[in-house]
Structures are given as structure tokens and as C-alpha cells.
């Protein structure tokens, strides 16, 4: 049973999206979670991803590491891409690979190439948690990129607080409510003692102040 009700979420959203100072960018809305009764050293650290119904980060930059077919598709769709030759040119230079990894938020790679990535780029992308998502010729790379933009990840590291993007200020209230409730319930399902591990839940826009949900 969810302990966060839709009306509390709607109130927080109304407060967050109330016209304040207009920013020059679209502010992201983040769900900030504080946990309790959890020992990251001893208890199993959880990790889970979930695809939200509405894309929380439309501006997430995705680059495709493609074979000829996917490079052509990317060109047609106006997406950023790198061909095998481009990757070979990096010559396993760690600095250049790091620069590539930093330039994009996420990567897609043609299925045919996925096994070659470690050989071409070494562990660079894997280290920063951006190992490419495979995409087949039958799939649309645009849809696949949007799937990445809609997917959020909950991962417990050494500290008992997490933050994930669940939307942005230009979404409708219903879209935000759907994303937030799904995110909260999914996170709670990952926790060992469910709601007993949740200390606090806050919603916050990039530049705004946090609002407590729980």
C-alpha cells in the first residue's frame, strides 16, 4: 500500500511549478529519498531501473555507436553517432574516451558492435556507468533513445540518500503525478522492509526549494 497519496503529490507539484523566477532552461523535478534502518555496508545494496510513462529528461543526450545501417538512420533522424572508424580513431586513448563519455549522457550501440566495444574503447564507458544499450536493426533508434530518456535508475551507494529525475516543470500535473507515484512505489518495492526503510521523500525542482511528500 502506498503511503504517498496523489493529493499530497499534486500539492507539492502546484507549489513547485507555481510561477517564480523564469529560468532560461527547463528545470528538472527530482525525487529525493532518505532511507533509514539500512546499513549500506552490511545490507544488500539494491539497484533497479524502471521506465516511466512520461519522459522526465527530454534533453538527455544520447549517442549511437553504430554500424553503417544505424549511422545512416541516426543521420536521417538528426541524432549524434560515432561509426566504428570514429571509435578506432580514438586509438584507446583514455583521455579521448573519457571526453566522449563526458560529452553524452547515454549511449546506444548496434547489436553487431556491442561485443567489440570493450575491445575498441576499453573499460572507459563501463567505468562511468554508461555502457551502451544494444539496439537491433528491427528497432527504431529514436524510440530506443526515448526509452533511455524515460528510464530512471535507483541505486544505493554508500550513503542513505538517493535522488532521481522524475519529470520537469513543463509537464502536466497528471504526467508528473503518474511518474512520481510509479517511481515511489517502485523504489519501495526494492527496499528490504519497504516503507519501514523510508525516512523521507522530497520533491524539488533544480532551482526551487524542496517539498516534503513523506
Description of the molecule:
The chain has about 210 residues and is an alpha/beta fold. It has a four-stranded antiparallel beta sheet, covered by helices on one side. Helix 2 links the parallel strand 3 and strand 4. It is globular and about 50 Å long. The two termini are about 15 Å apart.
What's the pLDDT, averaged over the residues?
82
How far apart the termini lie comes to 14 Å
Helix content percent band: 25-40%
Write down the Rg: 19 Å
Strand content: 15-25%
Principal-axis shape = globular
The run of helices and strands is HEEEHEHHEHHHEHEEHEE
Task: Give a nutshell description of this structure.
The chain has 214 residues and is α/β, with parallel strands linked by helices. It has nine helices and ten strands. It is 37% helix and 25% strand.
SSE layout and pairing:
Blueprint: H1 6-17, E1 28-35, E2 47-51, E3 62-66, H2 68-77, E4 80-83, H3 84-89, H4 94-103, E5 106-110, H5 111-114, H6 117-121, H7 124-127, E6 133-135, H8 141-150, E7 151-155, E8 161-168, H9 173-190, E9 198-205, E10 211-212
Parallel strand pairs: 3-4, 3-5, 5-6
Antiparallel strand pairs: 1-8, 1-9, 2-7, 9-10
Helix pairs in contact: 1-9
Amino acid at each position: 500500500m502506498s503511503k504517498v497519496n496523489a493529493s499530497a503529490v499534486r500539492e507539492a507539484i502546484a507549489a513547485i511549478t507555481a510561477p517564480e523566477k523564469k529560468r532560461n532552461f527547463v528545470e528538472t523535478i527530482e525525487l529525493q529519498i532518505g532511507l533509514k534502518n539500512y546499513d549500506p555496508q552490511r545490507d544488500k545494496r539494491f539497484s533497479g531501473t524502471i521506465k516511466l510513462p512520461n519522459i522526465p529528461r527530454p534533453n538527455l543526450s544520447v549517442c549511437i555507436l553504430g554500424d553503417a545501417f544505424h549511422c545512416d538512420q541516426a543521420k536521417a533522424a538528426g541524432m549524434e553517432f560515432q561509426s566504428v572508424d570514429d571509435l578506432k580513431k580514438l586509438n584507446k586513448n583514455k583521455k579521448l574516451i573519457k571526453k566522449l563519455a563526458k560529452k553524452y549522457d547515454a549511449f546506444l550501440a548496434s547489436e553487431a558492435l556491442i561485443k567489440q566495444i570493450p575491445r575498441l574503447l576499453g573499460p572507459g564507458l563501463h567505468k562511468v556507468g554508461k555502457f551502451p544499450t544494444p539496439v537491433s536493426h528491427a528497432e527504431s533508434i529514436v524510440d530506443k533513445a526515448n526509452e533511455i530518456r524515460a528510464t530512471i535508475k535507483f541505486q544505493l551507494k554508500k550513503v542513505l540518500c538517493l535522488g532521481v529525475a522524475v519529470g520537469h516543470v513543463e509537464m502536466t500535473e497528471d504526467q508528473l503525478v503518474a511518474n512520481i507515484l510509479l517511481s515511489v512505489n517502485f523504489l519501495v518495492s526494492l527496499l528490504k522492509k519497504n516503507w519501514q526503510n523510508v525516512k523521507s521523500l522530497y520533491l524539488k525542482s533544480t532551482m526551487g526549494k524542496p517539498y516534503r511528500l513523506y
